[in-house]
Amino acid sequence: MTNNSTRLDHVVLWVADPVAAAGFYERSVGLEPLRVAEFAAGEAPFPSVRVNEESILDLAPLSSAERTRMLPGSADSAGHPVNHVCLSLPAGAFDALRARLREHGVPVSDIGHDSFGARGEARRNFYFRDPDGNVLEARHYGE
């Protein structure tokens, strides 16, 4: 990938309790939390979790929706359904995530096969929800 190619930087998820959401994504999904202490201290508007070296999920407090003013009507996006966010993992990490979610009591869907995505057909995939109802998909493409 080159520096002038388009990349996904972040996705903002509305959550009721950003600290609890960061804990879920750390413990159950295995993502690194960012700025949680700063958020708790009132020094950052929201915490995040790192998906990879280039992408994060921002965990925006639903209570701040009415103050969202980047575009007219932005506050109305709170509660608007995004169908799901998909995490692409190597096969071993895919299996480890599914096991970790079950270990933490997070319901997961059945395993699907040959689902189309950014890199073509994924060999396996499954879905789960975070505590705020956001739907995530996990998938892997190769061995």
Tell me what you see in this structure.
Keywords: Dioxygenase, Oxidoreductase. This is Dioxygenase. GO terms for molecular function: dioxygenase activity. β7 and β8 form a beta hairpin. This protein is α/β, with parallel strands linked by helices and 143 residues long. It starts with 9 loop residues before the first strand and ends with a strand. The chain folds into two domains: 80 residues, Signal recognition particle alu RNA binding heterodimer, srp9/1 (2-Layer Sandwich), CATH 3.30.720.120; 62 residues, 2,3-Dihydroxybiphenyl 1,2-Dioxygenase, domain 1 (Roll). The protein is 21% helix and 31% strand. The strands form two sheets. It has a four-stranded mixed sheet, covered by helices on one side.
Per-chain topology:
Elements: E1 10-15, H1 18-29, E2 32-34, H2 36-40, E3 48-50, E4 56-61, E5 85-88, H3 91-103, E6 112-117, E7 120-129, E8 135-140
Parallel strand pairs: 1-4, 5-8
Antiparallel strand pairs: 2-3, 3-4, 6-7, 7-8
Pfam families: Glyoxalase
Domain VOC: 7-141
Organism: Streptomyces lucensis JCM 4490
The CATH architecture name of the largest domain reads: 2-Layer Sandwich
Secondary-structure-derived class? alpha/beta
Determine the oligomeric state from the structure: single chain
Name the helicity range.
Answer: 10-25%
What is the CATH topology classification name of the largest domain?
Signal recognition particle alu RNA binding heterodimer, srp9/1
Any idea what the radius of gyration is?
Answer: 16 Å
Spans of at least 5 consecutive residues with low confidence: none
Mean pLDDT metric: 87
Order of secondary-structure elements: EHEHEEEHEEE
What portion of the residues fall into strands of 2 or more residues? 25-35%
The CATH first-level class of the largest domain comes to Alpha Beta
What number of domains?
A: 2
DSSP, total strands: 8
Shape: globular
Major sheet size, sense and barrel closure: 4 strands, mixed
InterPro entries: Glyas_Bleomycin-R_OHBP_Dase, Glyas_Fos-R_dOase_dom, GlyoxalaseI/FosfomycinResist, VOC_core
GO molecular function: dioxygenase activity
Protein name: Dioxygenase
Organism: Streptomyces lucensis JCM 4490
